[in-house]
Structures are given as structure tokens and as C-alpha cells.
Amino acid sequence: MKRFLAFALLCLPSLAQAQEWVPRQQARIQALDKVTARVTVLEGRVGESLSFGTLTIRIGACHARPPTEVPDSAAWFEMTDSRAPQGSPPVFRGWMFADAPGVNMLEHPVYDVRILTCR
After folding, report:
1. What is the DSSP secondary structure assignment for residue 41, as one 8-state letter?
2. What is the DSSP letter of 101?
3. How far apart are the first and last CA of the chain?
4. What is the pTM of this model?
5. 83 alpha carbon, distance to own chain's centre
6. 47-84 burial, b if ≥16 CB within 10 A, otherwise e?
7. Over the range 15-35, which residues count as b (16 or more CB within 10 Å of their CB) and which as e?
8. Which of 41, 42, 105, 117 is the most exposed place for a label (fewest CB within 10 A)?
9. Cβ contact 94:1 at 8 Å
């Protein structure tokens, strides 16, 4: 996973330095329960936490490209699982990219989560 993150940092512009990313206040997320095949679209504001199954998804930031650029969105998430042992680290913490969901993704046996767009 660290190799993929290093690759992403080299190939994708840094959100902190790139001028073309625009902060947005709302994230649209797609969540999949792999056991039931249930797909749910969640929407939340930056700073909020959303629940899906045993996951709690905190939206730390959401950025989008301006209309003059190729569409893309990126969001910072911190996800915890209520079934994890007490004191466990988050199951995911980092940036997810709408156009490159495989670059940095949640690795969980039951759930898949991806960013769809930032508004």
C-alpha cells in the first residue's frame, strides 16, 4: 500500500500545492456492503461523520477541479470500524481520488467506500 501511495504522490499533484483544486463543502460517497451487495450513496459535509454498517466515515476535506479542468474530486477520510478492538487505529486514513479509486483505497473484508464527487 505504501508503494501505491508513493506512486500517487509522484503522479498526482499535491492538493496543498496545486492551485487548480477548489475546496468544496460536501462529499458524495458510494459505499458497498460486499456481503449483501447493497450499494448506498451517502452525502455529508466536511467535518461531519457518516455511518455505514459498522463503519464511521469522517470527512476531513473535499476538493474538486474547476469546471475548466478535467473533472475530478479528492477527499480526505478517516474511517473507523466499531467491531475493531478498543484502541485500534482507523481502518483508513487518507486521500481518495474519484478518477483513481485504486490509488489509495479502503482495504476492508466487508466494505468498499469511494468518493464520487465533491460539491
Report:
1. E
2. T
3. 28
4. 0.81
5. 20
6. eeebebbebbbbbebbbbbeeeeeebbbbbbbbbbeee
7. beeeeebeebeebbbbbbbee
8. 41
9. no
CA–CA distance, 76 with 114 (Å, rounded to integer):
11
Residue 45: other Cβ atoms inside 10 A: 13
CB of 9 closer than 8 Å to CB of 2: no
Contact 55, 91 (CB under 8 A): yes
Three-state DSSP class for residue 112: strand
Adjacent-strand bridge partners of 96: 75
Round to whole Å and give the CA distance between 74 and 85: 29
For 51-108, what is each residue's pLDDT tens digit? 999 999 999 999 999 988 989 999 999 999 999 999 999 999 999 999 998 899 999 9
Owner of C-alpha cell 474530486: 73
Q: Residue 101 and residue 4: Cα distance in Å, rounded?
A: 11
| Per-residue pLDDT, 5 | 46
